Amino acid sequence: MTVPSVSRARAHALVAAGSAAGAVLRVLAGWAASPLLGDAWSTVLVNVLGCFAIGAVAAMPALARWWPLVGPGLLGGFTTFSAFIVLLDGASPREAAILVVVTLVACPVAALLGERTVTRAR
Fold first, then answer.
1. Do the annotations mark residue 76 as ligand-binding?
2. For 29-45, b where at least 16 C-beta lie within 10 A, e where not — what string?
3. Is 79 annotated as a binding residue?
4. N or C: which end of the chain has fewer CB within 10 A?
5. Whole-structure pTM value
6. Maximum separation of any 2 CA atoms in the chain, in Å
7. pLDDT tens across 75-118, in order?
């Protein structure tokens, strides 16, 4: 994606606004998924879905102007590695290893699938 030139101040404001909204969406999605999956696995799900969306948005030239808002802003706030690390603290070594491997494999694959889904739909 080629991102059109925007001022730094505008880009920072877009990222900040998007991050705030993304963080709220992450908490809501986590609350919705946690009763079924538990905290750690609901965070993995949110991260995988967010990576799919990042790949999809990156493949949409019409959204290039809004990349700071939607990419690193909204979806950056929606996905979270820091909360994931905190949740590993309560996991057994085996579960922590599984969570890490699933995250490190599923997130890049999801981003690629998101990009390919949009590219093929055009």
1. yes
2. bbeebeeeeebbbbbbb
3. yes
4. C
5. 0.87
6. 47
7. 999 998 777 788 888 889 999 999 999 999 999 999 999 999 99
